[in-house]
Amino acid sequence: MSAPAQPVLRPTARILLVDEDDRILLFSGTDEADGRTFWLPVGGGCDPGETPEQAAIREMREETGLDDIALGPMVWRRNLIATWGGVTYDCREHYFLTRTAAFEVDTSGFTEVERATVTGHHWWTLDELRATTDRLVPRDLARLLPDLLRAGPPRTPILLER
User: Fold this and answer.
1) Which of 15, 44, 52, 62 could lock 109 by a disulfide, CB 3.0 to 4.6 Å apart?
2) Boundaries of each Nudix hydrolase domain copy (predicted)?
């Protein structure tokens, strides 16, 4: 019997895109393993040779239509092993807090994979985050985001647990 394949390294950039009413833009999908809905921030994998900052700017443009916004500071990092599309990844996530005025999301820049897997988007209030039974990414987003918005960005990014 052969050894299981090593997870594929996947540096990732995620943007905590928060409007003037402290609502965060999240995209939804369905967990392949259990069929549950999950919600995660704007973002995705870094292309070869791309820094997390460059990937964050590209992903914001592709997933929301925003192309003239300054990327905010990196506030969190998270490492996890995840399986998606039958491939196991060693994800190295970088989270950036970016403030914006509310806007109409334009998903016309979605990749083919995003069009097939993203099931919706929503500007979530902090109360909605606390009340939802859907899975949030990161798991403690409903607790972490209000603390971050109240205290402001940390001097160095915080390493999150799963």
Assistant:
1) 62
2) 8-149
CATH topology of domain 8-160: Nucleoside Triphosphate Pyrophosphohydrolase (3.90.79)
HSE (CB half, 13 Å, CA atoms) of 153? 16
Closest by alpha carbon to 14, among 85, 82, 112? 82
Q: What amino acid occupies position 115?
A: R
Q: Residue ranges of the domains in the chain?
A: 8-160
Tokens of 89: 């990844």
Q: What angle do CA 78, 82, 88 make, to 5 degrees?
A: 130
Tokens 């599309």: give the residue: 85
- As a 3-state breakdown, the chain gives helix, strand, coil percent values, each rounded to 5, of 20, 40, 40
Furthest C-alpha separation in the chain: 56
Residue position matching structure tokens 């820094």: 51
C-beta separation of 162 from 79 below 8 A: no
